[in-house]
Amino acid sequence: MIVVFALSRVVTTVIMLAFAGIQDRTYWTGPKPDYFSFAAIWDSDWYRIVSIVGYPSQLPLTSDGHVAQNAWAFLPGYPAVVRVFLFFGIPFQYASVIVSVAFALGAALLLHRLLSRVLPSETAMFAVVLFCVAPLSPILQVGYAESMQLFFLMLALLFLQDRRYYLLIPVVGIAALTRPSGLAFAAMLLLHAIHRFVTRHRDPFPRAERVGVIVAGLSSGLFGVLWPIVAWIGTGSPAAYTDTELAWRVGYIGYTELVPFGAWFQGADWWLRWIQVPGATILAPVLVVLFVGLFVILLFSPPVRRLGVDIRFWLAGYGIYLFAVFFPQSSTFRLLMPFAPALGAIAIPRSVTYRITLVLLGIAGQVGWMAICWWVNGLDWTPP
Q: Which chain regions cross the lipid bilayer (predicted)?
């Protein structure tokens, strides 16, 4: 397992170094930066600011009075861990990569353990291979919080499978303060509780476990709104967090209010208009409904059903959360990383040709993602 992870990091590092070698001067680095400087661009710089300075007590405003992009959009879990290394004199660009790679290895090991409970060991192993070579796997070795989130996600799912609900609470808390996910966990636990209650005749659901699920679910919901509350307290603005998040949509749809379950419809309309599709306003909601329907069908497909109900509840809960609050853009690709347990379903076919093809497609996808999202080409509007 560790060998697989290490080899995949070598491949990804070679790809990143190739792009660093042709990188022109950027906002963050000079031309042809070294690996660690190249791994600390984009949102990594926000995490650097948080780990060194913290959060602003006053929200920055644009010239027209709207909340500008600022550090409150970046949760404190990951920079808090990085700050430990900074305390010992290790610069951010090195510390952030160390933390990300360490958590990524832990996530890979936990993913194998998680999937080995519902799939044959060799299938679980190949799912980890896919995890390690996936198009988004470069994010596992840069200054982003995804690998830390994935580590605590896998640990939370293991505790859920074991029905260790009280141990689940602090793990969900850390995950929710690393990347937004508390409400997704709450949705997962609600589905889990309903399922256990409905099937209690064949799978006993004693009172103590019912209380545990309820406490864990309510705690997850609280964790889901905790950071917006902290931002409110820290700035004096009740909408500090949501206004900050919405600042990243301005380049697409201008200044808007957060409308739950509306962003994907707005996004579909924007993208269709951008590629000049006739009848975009009518076609956009149709495409979104079809997309949601396809997602539901996949959740009930035989390969995904083999993952077990708890993993499927996570996929559903996180899917509902993304649909409710996120605007689809280039950074949405990395927001799909928490769907990683679904790789178990993709790994089921045992054809050698099929598996080699998936690995090669994953590596090619890394090149594509680096070219589109990470490598900075002039006025780049496709941030990772």
A: 84-111, 123-145, 165-191, 211-234, 246-265, 277-301, 313-336, 356-377
